[in-house]
Design goal:
It comes from Camelus ferus. The chain crosses the membrane at residues 20-42, 62-85. Its main location: membrane. This protein is 66% helix and 2% strand. It contains 29 helices and four strands. It has helices at 2-22, 24-37, 44-56, 60-88, 92-104, 113-117, 120-132, 144-155, 162-176, 185-193, 199-212, 239-249, 253-277, 282-308, 312-325, 334-344, 348-358, 367-379, 387-393, 397-412, 416-420, 438-454, 458-465, 469-472, 490-497, 514-535, 537-552, 561-572, 581-584, and strands at residues 135-137, 221-222, 230-231, 432-434. The strands form two sheets. It has a two-stranded antiparallel ribbon with strand order 1-4.
Amino acid sequence: MAEAGTGFLEQLKSCIVWSWTYLWTVWFFIVLFLVYILRVPLKINDNLSTVSMFLNTLTPKFYVALTGTSSLISGLILIFEWWYFRKYGTSFIEQVSVSHLRPLLGGVDNNSSNNSNSSNGDSDSNRQSVSECKVWRNPLNLFRGAEYNRYTWVTGREPLTYYDMNLSAQDHQTFFTCDSDHLRPADAIMQKAWRERNPQARISAAHEALEINEIRSRVEVPLIASSTIWEIKLLPKCATAYILLAEEEATTIAEAEKLFKQALKAGDGCYRRSQQLQHHGSQYEAQHRRDTNVLVYIKRRLAMCARRLGRTREAVKMMRDLMKEFPLLSMFNIHENLLEALLELQAYADVQAVLAKYDDISLPKSATICYTAALLKARAVSDKFSPEAASRRGLSTAEMNAVEAIHRAVEFNPHVPKYLLEMKSLILPPEHILKRGDSEAIAYAFFHLAHWKRVEGALNLLHCTWEGTFRMIPYPLEKGHLFYPYPVCTETADRELLPSFHEVSVYPKKELPFFILFTAGLCSFTAMLALLTHQFPELMGVFAKAMIDIFCSAEFRDWNCKSIFMRVEDELEIPPAPQSQHFQN
């Protein structure tokens, strides 16, 4: 019975919603008919006459107050709408209307089983949009202590947002911890340290974890799984503690490198021990996976330290060895670090070889891959490229390939050219980026702007051709050209990743919502009425009374504009204009 009653109520609700959606004109005329039938019992004519008499007795001061209050309220609404649009990229009134009023006036029920079967295409596109809006670890992220904190000390600004640092804390807990950390006291301390929000508390915990390892104690470690043979050994050094100190406490890159070398010594020993025991159970396998992540992270950061300190060839060798030793760990995107170092060495043939391996249709793209490919093709023609000559004779095959590569890169991330052409100021890149977003553009341009400047004419070719991309994709949110449509979630995610003092680049540019324009017009109109009523109270009062008489009188059909102006002249006792002799004759 309850199910039958619920089904009846759902059917009744759907019928009412359908009627409001498609039969709203019928409802409107029914309401008008009822008002006409009930005009005598409701005394509508008498009430209108009473209202008209009351409004005719109002003084001009009332109209000044009315228009002034209306202007103030609409101005406040305009300010709030503009602030909400600048912060969230949408209109508050429009959002409330869509989310609350639309379901009542015929909106689609998301839980309907009928719609779920007919929206497979939409779900696929939404799934693609969600995957493109995934936040990735920045492969070229800076060091907190040696670079980010120094920026804060100099400028007083925080280059990292809380959301960005929270994502880093989650990454550290994923890569550097496992379920068996409670068996080793130092790892148990570090497991809590990665969850700490206070930087000083994290650093203190790392020092505490290192102090524990200085004490020789009895550690029961099984030599063979499920065995009763035990040994007494010195606790191994905690590699993750050295990582935290190198990232956050070291104030220079040289100090960070020393700490990472100590972390490498400790991490390599843990990795070799866990490698021998990884097949003895799921617990040992988790430990080996954690130790592998720690070792790869340490070697990658050591290579980045060498790159920062000018030992670029050594950094390239370390990155190549790391990619050969762990070819399946693509989550760190070490090839992007390698591309940047090879560009610094101007080893363009090696860069092309790396691109040939990673610029594949089955692999996820990045701004580094797309723009580096465009740079290599632009390098072949940029030194002799001239816009005037190209307009006269047309583009050659090599120039056409370079332009197409630039268009491809700009379609993938349209924010990068403004940073490369120095049309927007750069800031320190965040620790996480959103592919195809402003955060990725900042991270790429921060390290690769010097490589574009080094190639003669490359920036000139980019300046002349990058805007042509937008003519190929006039509706980027609906349909792409070489990639999927541009995701709509990039602006919101970038505002969370980038600091508040940076003006986030938005693509495509959003037009002002209707309600902002409406409130702006309403505010201006009411402010003008308030000013006119204050300056000319008698004239505006006459106009107001005339308009009220038009709308409230039962005989308003007989009124016209001429009667309004005649009444204005009578009220103000304006003498008629004298006619000239020419018109009298």
